[in-house]
Amino acid sequence: MERNTLSIVKTILTRVLVYTALMIVAVIVLYPLLWIIGTSFDPINNLGRMGIFPQNPTLKNYVRLIEETKYISWYLNTAYIAFMTMFFSVLLNTLTAFVFARFDFKGKKAGLLSVMLLQMFPSFMGLTAIYMIALNFGMLDNLNMLVIIYVAGSIPTNVWLVKGNLMNLPKSIDEAAYIDGASKLQVFIRILMPLSRPIISFIALTSFIMPWMDFMLPRFLIKSADNQTLAVGLFFMTDTRSPTADLTAFCAGAVLIAVPIATLYMICQRFLITGLAAGANKGE
Q1: What are 47-81's pLDDT values in tens digits?
Q2: Domain extent for 88
Q3: Exposed site from 60, 104, 111, 257, fewest CB < 10 Å?
Q4: 47 shares its domain with 144
Protein backbone atom coordinates (compact mmCIF):
# COMPACT_ATOMS: atom_id res chain seq x y z
CA MET A 1 0.00 0.00 0.00
CA GLU A 2 2.79 2.41 0.91
CA ARG A 3 4.53 1.79 -2.42
CA ASN A 4 1.30 2.39 -4.32
CA THR A 5 0.69 5.58 -2.35
CA LEU A 6 4.22 6.82 -3.06
CA SER A 7 3.81 5.98 -6.74
CA ILE A 8 0.54 7.91 -6.94
CA VAL A 9 2.08 10.90 -5.13
CA LYS A 10 5.08 10.89 -7.51
CA THR A 11 2.77 10.74 -10.53
CA ILE A 12 0.68 13.63 -9.24
CA LEU A 13 3.74 15.75 -8.43
CA THR A 14 5.26 15.02 -11.83
CA ARG A 15 2.08 16.07 -13.60
CA VAL A 16 1.79 19.22 -11.50
CA LEU A 17 5.38 20.20 -12.32
CA VAL A 18 4.91 19.45 -16.03
CA TYR A 19 1.69 21.45 -16.30
CA THR A 20 3.16 24.29 -14.27
CA ALA A 21 6.14 24.46 -16.60
CA LEU A 22 3.85 24.38 -19.64
CA MET A 23 1.73 27.21 -18.21
CA ILE A 24 4.81 29.33 -17.55
CA VAL A 25 6.07 28.77 -21.09
CA ALA A 26 2.60 29.54 -22.49
CA VAL A 27 2.48 32.84 -20.59
CA ILE A 28 5.99 33.79 -21.77
CA VAL A 29 5.07 33.02 -25.39
CA LEU A 30 1.50 34.34 -25.46
CA TYR A 31 1.89 37.58 -23.50
CA PRO A 32 3.93 39.45 -26.17
CA LEU A 33 1.55 38.18 -28.85
CA LEU A 34 -1.54 39.35 -26.95
CA TRP A 35 0.19 42.67 -26.20
CA ILE A 36 0.82 43.26 -29.91
CA ILE A 37 -2.79 42.39 -30.81
CA GLY A 38 -4.20 44.61 -28.04
CA THR A 39 -1.94 47.52 -28.95
CA SER A 40 -2.98 47.31 -32.61
CA PHE A 41 -6.48 48.36 -31.52
CA ASP A 42 -5.30 51.09 -29.12
CA PRO A 43 -6.42 54.59 -30.20
CA ILE A 44 -3.54 56.27 -28.28
CA ASN A 45 0.00 56.03 -29.65
CA ASN A 46 1.63 56.09 -26.23
CA LEU A 47 4.05 53.31 -25.29
CA GLY A 48 3.44 53.80 -21.58
CA ARG A 49 -0.32 53.24 -21.91
CA MET A 50 -0.28 50.34 -24.34
CA GLY A 51 -1.44 46.96 -23.14
CA ILE A 52 -3.41 43.80 -23.82
CA PHE A 53 -6.77 45.42 -23.10
CA PRO A 54 -6.94 48.88 -24.75
CA GLN A 55 -9.56 51.42 -23.79
CA ASN A 56 -11.98 52.30 -26.60
CA PRO A 57 -10.53 49.82 -29.14
CA THR A 58 -10.60 50.98 -32.75
CA LEU A 59 -9.65 49.87 -36.27
CA LYS A 60 -8.18 53.27 -37.12
CA ASN A 61 -4.63 51.96 -36.79
CA TYR A 62 -5.26 49.42 -39.56
CA VAL A 63 -6.89 52.06 -41.77
CA ARG A 64 -4.04 54.51 -41.17
CA LEU A 65 -1.48 51.80 -41.87
CA ILE A 66 -2.98 51.07 -45.30
CA GLU A 67 -3.83 54.64 -46.29
CA GLU A 68 -0.83 56.57 -44.96
CA THR A 69 2.02 54.14 -45.61
CA LYS A 70 3.16 51.91 -48.46
CA TYR A 71 2.14 48.80 -46.56
CA ILE A 72 0.29 47.26 -49.51
CA SER A 73 3.36 47.75 -51.71
CA TRP A 74 5.58 46.19 -49.04
CA TYR A 75 3.17 43.28 -48.73
CA LEU A 76 3.09 42.64 -52.49
CA ASN A 77 6.89 42.86 -52.74
CA THR A 78 7.33 40.37 -49.93
CA ALA A 79 4.67 38.04 -51.33
CA TYR A 80 6.40 38.09 -54.74
CA ILE A 81 9.75 37.19 -53.18
CA ALA A 82 8.19 34.45 -51.05
CA PHE A 83 6.25 32.80 -53.89
CA MET A 84 9.19 32.92 -56.32
CA THR A 85 11.54 31.55 -53.66
CA MET A 86 9.13 28.73 -52.92
CA PHE A 87 8.73 27.77 -56.59
CA PHE A 88 12.41 27.76 -57.53
CA SER A 89 13.51 26.19 -54.24
CA VAL A 90 11.21 23.23 -54.77
CA LEU A 91 12.26 22.89 -58.42
CA LEU A 92 16.04 23.11 -57.92
CA ASN A 93 16.23 21.17 -54.66
CA THR A 94 14.12 18.24 -55.85
CA LEU A 95 15.99 17.97 -59.16
CA THR A 96 19.39 18.15 -57.46
CA ALA A 97 18.39 15.59 -54.83
CA PHE A 98 17.03 13.30 -57.57
CA VAL A 99 20.40 13.31 -59.33
CA PHE A 100 22.34 12.60 -56.13
CA ALA A 101 19.93 9.90 -54.93
CA ARG A 102 19.37 8.00 -58.17
CA PHE A 103 22.57 8.28 -60.24
CA ASP A 104 26.19 7.31 -59.75
CA PHE A 105 28.76 9.66 -61.27
CA LYS A 106 32.29 10.83 -60.69
CA GLY A 107 32.52 13.43 -57.95
CA LYS A 108 29.21 12.48 -56.32
CA LYS A 109 30.60 12.14 -52.81
CA ALA A 110 32.65 15.31 -53.16
CA GLY A 111 29.56 17.16 -54.31
CA LEU A 112 27.50 15.89 -51.39
CA LEU A 113 30.28 16.80 -48.97
CA SER A 114 30.48 20.30 -50.43
CA VAL A 115 26.74 20.75 -50.06
CA MET A 116 26.92 19.57 -46.46
CA LEU A 117 29.82 21.90 -45.62
CA LEU A 118 27.89 24.89 -46.94
CA GLN A 119 25.41 24.41 -44.09
CA MET A 120 28.14 25.25 -41.58
CA PHE A 121 28.55 28.89 -42.61
CA PRO A 122 26.00 31.57 -41.62
CA SER A 123 24.58 33.60 -44.49
CA PHE A 124 25.76 36.97 -43.16
CA MET A 125 29.39 35.93 -43.73
CA GLY A 126 28.93 36.55 -47.45
CA LEU A 127 27.10 39.89 -47.24
CA THR A 128 30.00 41.89 -48.66
CA ALA A 129 30.52 39.44 -51.52
CA ILE A 130 26.77 39.38 -52.23
CA TYR A 131 26.69 43.17 -52.32
CA MET A 132 29.59 43.33 -54.78
CA ILE A 133 28.02 40.69 -57.03
CA ALA A 134 24.72 42.57 -57.06
CA LEU A 135 26.55 45.83 -57.76
CA ASN A 136 28.58 44.39 -60.64
CA PHE A 137 25.53 42.79 -62.26
CA GLY A 138 23.36 45.87 -61.79
CA MET A 139 20.95 44.05 -59.45
CA LEU A 140 21.04 46.30 -56.43
CA ASP A 141 17.55 47.39 -55.39
CA ASN A 142 16.16 44.42 -57.33
CA LEU A 143 13.67 41.96 -55.83
CA ASN A 144 14.89 39.17 -58.11
CA MET A 145 18.33 39.37 -56.51
CA LEU A 146 16.75 38.53 -53.17
CA VAL A 147 14.97 35.56 -54.76
CA ILE A 148 18.29 34.25 -56.14
CA ILE A 149 19.98 34.55 -52.73
CA TYR A 150 17.15 32.88 -50.82
CA VAL A 151 16.94 30.01 -53.31
CA ALA A 152 20.70 29.48 -53.23
CA GLY A 153 20.68 29.57 -49.44
CA SER A 154 18.00 26.88 -49.26
CA ILE A 155 19.96 24.35 -51.33
CA PRO A 156 22.37 22.82 -48.74
CA THR A 157 19.76 21.78 -46.18
CA ASN A 158 16.88 20.95 -48.50
CA VAL A 159 18.94 18.84 -50.91
CA TRP A 160 19.95 16.58 -48.05
CA LEU A 161 16.37 16.34 -46.81
CA VAL A 162 14.94 15.41 -50.22
CA LYS A 163 17.81 13.04 -50.93
CA GLY A 164 17.17 11.27 -47.63
CA ASN A 165 13.51 10.85 -48.58
CA LEU A 166 14.33 9.52 -52.06
CA MET A 167 16.83 7.06 -50.63
CA ASN A 168 13.94 5.51 -48.70
CA LEU A 169 12.09 4.77 -51.95
CA PRO A 170 13.21 1.52 -53.61
CA LYS A 171 14.95 1.84 -56.97
CA SER A 172 12.84 -1.04 -58.25
CA ILE A 173 10.08 1.53 -58.77
CA ASP A 174 12.30 3.41 -61.21
CA GLU A 175 13.42 0.24 -62.95
CA ALA A 176 9.85 -0.94 -63.48
CA ALA A 177 8.98 2.43 -65.02
CA TYR A 178 12.03 2.33 -67.30
CA ILE A 179 11.01 -1.13 -68.52
CA ASP A 180 7.60 0.32 -69.41
CA GLY A 181 9.32 2.95 -71.54
CA ALA A 182 9.30 5.93 -69.15
CA SER A 183 12.09 8.49 -69.39
CA LYS A 184 14.08 9.73 -66.39
CA LEU A 185 12.10 12.97 -66.36
CA GLN A 186 8.80 11.09 -66.44
CA VAL A 187 9.93 8.88 -63.54
CA PHE A 188 10.85 11.98 -61.57
CA ILE A 189 7.62 13.90 -62.27
CA ARG A 190 5.02 11.12 -62.33
CA ILE A 191 6.37 8.68 -59.75
CA LEU A 192 8.94 10.13 -57.36
CA MET A 193 7.41 13.57 -56.85
CA PRO A 194 3.95 12.23 -55.84
CA LEU A 195 5.61 9.78 -53.45
CA SER A 196 7.69 12.62 -52.00
CA ARG A 197 4.75 14.94 -51.41
CA PRO A 198 5.32 15.36 -47.63
CA ILE A 199 8.94 16.46 -47.93
CA ILE A 200 8.16 18.66 -50.95
CA SER A 201 5.34 20.33 -49.02
CA PHE A 202 7.72 20.90 -46.11
CA ILE A 203 10.29 22.54 -48.39
CA ALA A 204 7.64 24.68 -50.06
CA LEU A 205 6.33 25.90 -46.72
CA THR A 206 9.71 26.68 -45.18
CA SER A 207 10.93 28.34 -48.39
CA PHE A 208 7.86 30.57 -48.40
CA ILE A 209 8.23 31.55 -44.75
CA MET A 210 12.01 32.13 -44.86
CA PRO A 211 11.99 35.49 -46.73
CA TRP A 212 8.68 36.67 -45.25
CA MET A 213 10.18 38.48 -42.28
CA ASP A 214 13.88 38.56 -43.16
CA PHE A 215 15.35 41.97 -42.41
CA MET A 216 19.08 41.71 -43.04
CA LEU A 217 19.25 41.05 -46.80
CA PRO A 218 16.46 43.46 -47.88
CA ARG A 219 17.93 46.20 -45.72
CA PHE A 220 21.35 45.57 -47.22
CA LEU A 221 20.36 45.34 -50.89
CA ILE A 222 17.13 47.32 -51.26
CA LYS A 223 17.40 51.11 -51.22
CA SER A 224 14.24 52.56 -52.77
CA ALA A 225 11.00 52.93 -50.81
CA ASP A 226 8.97 51.30 -53.60
CA ASN A 227 10.92 48.03 -53.36
CA GLN A 228 10.99 47.76 -49.59
CA THR A 229 9.78 44.59 -47.92
CA LEU A 230 7.57 44.24 -44.87
CA ALA A 231 10.40 43.78 -42.39
CA VAL A 232 12.26 46.89 -43.53
CA GLY A 233 9.16 49.04 -43.84
CA LEU A 234 7.87 48.12 -40.40
CA PHE A 235 11.31 48.55 -38.83
CA PHE A 236 11.32 52.28 -39.53
CA MET A 237 7.92 52.57 -37.86
CA THR A 238 9.50 51.47 -34.57
CA ASP A 239 12.34 54.01 -34.68
CA THR A 240 11.17 56.75 -32.32
CA ARG A 241 13.78 59.12 -33.79
CA SER A 242 12.10 58.86 -37.20
CA PRO A 243 9.18 61.11 -38.19
CA THR A 244 7.43 58.00 -39.55
CA ALA A 245 7.46 56.25 -36.16
CA ASP A 246 4.05 54.85 -35.30
CA LEU A 247 4.01 52.02 -32.79
CA THR A 248 0.28 51.28 -32.92
CA ALA A 249 0.32 51.10 -36.73
CA PHE A 250 3.41 48.90 -36.46
CA CYS A 251 1.48 46.48 -34.23
CA ALA A 252 -1.38 46.45 -36.73
CA GLY A 253 1.08 45.62 -39.51
CA ALA A 254 2.63 42.85 -37.42
CA VAL A 255 -0.80 41.28 -36.85
CA LEU A 256 -1.57 41.33 -40.59
CA ILE A 257 1.79 39.69 -41.30
CA ALA A 258 1.19 36.94 -38.78
CA VAL A 259 -2.24 35.93 -40.12
CA PRO A 260 -1.11 34.16 -43.34
CA ILE A 261 1.89 32.56 -41.63
CA ALA A 262 -0.19 31.25 -38.73
CA THR A 263 -2.81 29.97 -41.18
CA LEU A 264 -0.18 28.15 -43.24
CA TYR A 265 1.30 26.54 -40.13
CA MET A 266 -2.09 25.31 -38.97
CA ILE A 267 -3.01 23.92 -42.38
CA CYS A 268 0.37 22.34 -43.10
CA GLN A 269 1.36 21.26 -39.61
CA ARG A 270 1.22 17.57 -40.47
CA PHE A 271 3.46 18.17 -43.50
CA LEU A 272 6.08 19.80 -41.28
CA ILE A 273 6.28 16.74 -39.03
CA THR A 274 5.93 14.14 -41.79
CA GLY A 275 8.35 15.98 -44.05
CA LEU A 276 11.09 16.14 -41.44
CA ALA A 277 10.64 12.44 -40.67
CA ALA A 278 10.69 11.59 -44.38
CA GLY A 279 14.00 13.36 -44.91
CA ALA A 280 15.67 12.10 -41.75
CA ASN A 281 17.63 9.36 -43.54
CA LYS A 282 20.82 10.87 -44.94
CA GLY A 283 22.68 7.68 -45.66
CA GLU A 284 23.93 6.50 -49.02
Answers
A1: 556 667 777 788 888 988 888 888 999 999 999 99
A2: 66-280
A3: 104
A4: no
